[in-house]
Amino acid sequence: MLETNLSVYRGDKKTWVLTIKDSEGQAFDLTDYTVTMTVKLNASDTDEDALIQKDAVLTSPAAGICEIRLFHVDTEQDPRQYLYDVQIYEGDNIFTPLKGTFEIIQDITRKIS
Fold first, then answer.
1. Which residues contact 39 (CB under 8 A, 6 or more apart)?
2. Any domain includes 59
3. Rounded distance between C-alpha atoms, residue 10 and residue 104, angstroms
4. 11 occurs within a structural domain
5. How many structural domains are present in the chain?
6. How many other β-carbons are positioned within 10 Å of the β-carbon of residue 65?
7. CATH number at residue 55
8. pLDDT tens track for 62-95
9. pTM, entire model
């Protein structure tokens, strides 16, 4: 599992392109799998209480490539550090290739138009 910290300014749109690899460093074929990113304040929070939970868009599943797309409404959270992980699953076959902190950074301009 890779540990990577992510950040985004409050209210911004953000896309992360992920290339998922197996334990031997080869592309993991995501065909028939679902990839989900979950952001929580505490690891013990239920998934129903997650601040953000998004399924990735599988842009090139055979090559293990997907995108996590967050929109401005997703990042309108209190500026602070949260926890996140990315899980890949098909039925009972689940693994977590990525986790870390997820920081929402305080923006300066709060223009609404």
1. 50, 51, 52, 53, 82, 83, 84, 102
2. yes
3. 6
4. yes
5. 1
6. 18
7. 2.60.40.3350
8. 999 999 999 999 999 999 999 999 999 998 999 9
9. 0.92
